[in-house]
Specification:
By secondary structure, this protein is α/β, with parallel strands linked by helices. Helices cover 47% and strands 23% of the residues. The protein contains 20 helices and 22 strands. Strand 20, helix 19 (530-539) and strand 21 (543-544) form a beta-alpha-beta unit. Helix 3 runs antiparallel to helix 4 (79-95). The protein is elongated, with a radius of gyration of 40 Å.
Length: 573
C-alpha cells in the first residue's frame, strides 16, 4: 500500500510539473524566478527567445547577472538597455518593492518589466517585448499632433510649443513671433485642377516653408490652406518681417503640379510676444487679425499686428451683424442717378445705387458694405432686393425711361439669377426693355461659359446688358467678341482725366468709335464739368452720367429730374 501510495504521489507530482511547464512555456511574457543568492530557479522558453540565449546558459543555479551579461552581448537589445534593466531591478531588490517599468532602445525596441519580490528574499519578474505597441503608440501620438498630408505639426502641437516657449520666456529674452500664412487663390487650384492637385500643392508649400526657416523655428499646418510659423529671436520684429518677406517671395514662385504650371501667392500676418505678454490665444488672435489686414490690403503681402487693427476688426464684425438684419429692418435704400441721352438731350434712365442708412453710423457707401455682403454670403439676397425694388420704383416713371441695376460677379454663381430677374419684372409689371443690367469684367473671369450662358438667358428675357467700368480690366476686347453687349460704360477714371491727359481723351474717343461700329451704345461715367460734357459728346458717346447733372437722389425726388435737369441740359446744349 505504501509503495502504491508513493507511486500515486509521483504520478500526481509529474502531472502537476507537466502542467506547470505547459503553463510556464505558453506564457506570452518571458518569466524568470530567482532565489536570494541571485541564482535562477526557473525560467520559461519565452525568456530564452526574448534575450536570444541558448538553454545551456540559463540552467537553474546560473547567476542572473551572468545571464544578463550574455544577453547584452547576444541579443538585439543594446547593452545600455540590458544594463539599465539590471540596475532598476537591483534597486527594487534592495528596497524589497514591487515595480513595473519599461526600457527602450534608440531604434525603437522596448522591453516592459514587471518585478515582484518572493518570500525568502527571492524574486520573480516577467519581461515583454512591447516594441510594436510602443511604435503603434508613437504613430498614434504623431497622428494626433501632426498633419496627415504634410507631416507638419498641427494646430494642437503648435499651440503646445507656443505655450511652452511663452512660459519659459523672460523679459530679457527678446520676443517670440507667430506668423500666420494663408495661401492666395488656392481655391482656384482646387476648383480647376481638383483636390489631388491641391494636395500636391500643399505638400510643396510645406517643403518651401521648411526651407525658409531656421532650425529652431516651428512650421505647422493649421488646416486647409493656412499655415503658421513660430519664431523665437531677440531681434523682433525685424527677424519676423524678414522671414515674412522671404515667404511671400518664395511662395509666389510657380509650382509644377503634374506638368501643369501653377501660380499662387501668400498673405502673412505677424504678431510679436514679449516677456510681459504671454497669452497663447491672444497672440494667435493678433496674428490672425494681421493676416486679415494683409488680405484686405490686396494679398501677396504681410502685416504686423497693431492695436488699431483689432478695433477695426471689431467694428467690421459689428457691421456684419448689423448688415444681416438691414433688409428686414428696411435700412437699405436705393438712390438714383440720371443717365442723359446726348442725342435727344433728355433723361433716358436712372442707375440704381444702393445705400445703407445705418441707425447709428448714418449713410454707408456700398464700397464699404458690398464686399462684406459678398464675403458673408449675403450678396444674393441683397441683389434680389435691389432688383425687385428698382423695378417697383421704375414702373412709376414715364414709359420711355429705363432703370439700370448693377449685378455682383457673385450673383452669377447662383442658379436663381435668371428666375430672380424674371420674377422681379413680373411682380412689378415693368417692361423688360426698360431694365438694364450692368456687369463688370470681373464677372467674366471665372466660369466664363456659364456666365455667358446666363447673359444669353437674360437677353432672351428682353432686358439690356451693359459692360460696366470698361477699360479697367484685363481682356475687354475679348469680352466684346464673346458677348454682344448693348452698351459699354466708359469708366470715370478716363473721363475725369480727359482735359489733363491726352491718352485718356484718346481712349474715350476710341471706345466710342469702337462701340459705334459694333452697334453698341456708350455711356461716359463721371462727367462733372461742361467741358467734359462737350468732349464726350464730340467723342461720339450716346449717354452721359455724373455730378454735372446731379448727385444720386432717393426715389421720391426722381420725378423732379424729369423737368429741372432736362431744362439744364437743353440750356447747356
Amino acid at each position: 500500500m505504501l509503495v502504491q501510495s508513493l507511486l500515486e504521489s509521483d504520478r500526481t507530482l509529474d502531472t502537476q510539473n507537466a502542467r506547470f511547464d505547459i503553463a510556464l512555456n505558453n506564457m506570452s511574457q518571458a518569466l524568470c524566478m530567482v532565489d536570494q543568492q541571485q541564482r535562477i530557479i526557473v525560467c520559461n522558453s519565452r525568456f530564452l527567445e526574448l534575450f536570444e540565449l541558448p538553454a545551456n546558459m540559463v540552467q537553474p543555479g546560473a547567476l542572473i547577472e551572468e545571464v544578463f551579461y550574455n544577453a547584452a552581448a547576444m541579443s538585439r537589445y543594446e547593452r545600455d538597455v540590458i544594463e539599465a534593466i539590471c540596475e532598476k531591478q537591483r534597486e527594487l531588490i534592495t528596497a524589497g518593492r514591487t515595480g513595473s517599468f519599461f526600457q527602450e532602445n534608440a531604434d525603437g525596441h522596448a522591453i516592459a518589466v514587471s518585478h515582484r519580490p518572493m518570500p525568502g528574499n527571492g524574486w520573480v519578474a516577467t519581461y515583454e517585448d512591447i516594441s510594436e505597441r510602443r511604435q503603434a503608440e508613437a504613430r498614434i501620438h504623431f497622428m494626433a499632433h501632426h498633419d496627415a498630408l504634410t507631416c507638419l505639426p498641427n494646430r494642437l502641437l503648435f499651440e503646445d510649443k507656443l505655450e511652452q516657449l511663452l512660459k519659459g520666456m523672460r523679459q530679457e529674452d527678446g520676443g517670440a513671433a507667430v506668423l500666420c500664412i494663408d495661401l492666395d487663390h488656392f481655391k482656384d487650384v482646387n476648383d480647376s485642377l481638383g483636390h489631388p492637385a491641391g494636395d500636391q500643392l500643399l505638400k510643396q508649400v510645406a517643403q518651401r516653408l521648411l526651407e525658409c526657416v531656421r532650425g529652431g523655428d516651428v512650421v505647422a499646418r493649421l488646416g486647409g490652406d493656412e499655415f503658421a510659423i513660430l519664431q523665437s529671436s531677440a531681434c523682433q520684429p525685424e527677424y519676423a518681417e524678414g522671414l515674412a518677406r522671404r515667404l511671400v517671395k518664395t511662395l509666389r514662385t510657380p509650382y509644377d503640379i503634374d506638368g501643369t504650371r501653377v501660380v499662387i501667392g501668400a498673405s502673412v500676418g505677424i504678431a510679436i510676444a514679449t516677456g510681459d505678454r504671454k497669452d497663447v490665444n491672444h497672440l494667435l488672435k493678433n496674428a490672425d487679425i494681421a493676416l486679415y489686414k494683409a488680405k484686405e490690403e490686396g494679398r501677396g503681402t504681410y502685416c504686423l499686428f497693431e492695436a488699431e487693427m483689432d478695433v477695426q476688426l471689431q467694428a467690421r464684425r459689428a457691421m456684419e451683424l448689423d448688415l444681416l438684419e438691414a433688409i428686414d429692418k428696411h435700412e437699405l435704400i436705393l438712390f438714383y442717378q440720371p443717365l442723359f441721352n446726348l442725342e435727344t438731350n433728355k433723361v433716358s434712365g436712372f442707375e440704381a445705387l444702393l445705400r445703407w442708412r445705418h441707425p447709428s453710423l448714418g449713410m454707408i457707401s456700398p464700397a464699404q458694405f458690398i464686399p462684406i455682403a459678398e464675403e458673408i454670403g449675403l450678396i444674393a439676397r441683397i441683389g434680389e432686393w435691389v432688383l425687385r425694388q428698382a423695378c417697383h420704383d421704375a414702373v412709376t416713371w414715364p414709359a420711355d425711361v429705363m432703370v439700370a441695376v448693377n449685378l455682383s460677379p457673385l450673383q452669377f454663381r447662383s442658379s436663381d439669377l435668371v428666375h430672380t430677374v424674371r420674377s422681379s419684372l413680373d411682380a412689378s409689371g415693368l417692361s423688360p426693355r426698360r431694365l438694364e443690367l450692368e456687369i463688370t469684367e470681373s464677372a467674366l473671369l471665372k466660369d466664363n461659359d456659364k456666365v455667358l450662358a446666363t447673359l444669353h438667358e437674360l437677353r432672351d428675357l428682353g432686358v439690356e446688358i451693359a459692360l460696366d467700368d470698361f477699360g479697367t480690366g484685363y481682356s475687354s476686347l475679348s469680352y466684346l467678341r464673346s458677348f454682344p453687349f448693348d452698351k459699354i460704360k466708359i469708366d470715370q477714371s478716363f473721363v475725369r482725366e480727359m482735359d489733363r491727359r491726352p491718352d485718356c481723351l484718346a481712349i474715350v474717343h476710341s471706345v466710342a468709335q469702337l462701340a459705334q461700329k459694333l452697334g453698341m451704345a456708350t455711356t461716359a461715367e463721371g462727367v462733372e464739368t461742361l467741358e467734359q460734357l462737350d468732349q464726350v459728346r464730340k467723342a461720339g458717346c450716346t449717354q452721359a452720367q455724373g455730378y454735372y447733372f446731379d448727385r444720386p437722389k432717393p426715389a421720391s425726388e426722381v420725378v423732379r429730374w424729369f423737368t429741372c435737369l432736362t431744362q439744364q441740359l437743353e440750356t447747356a446744349a
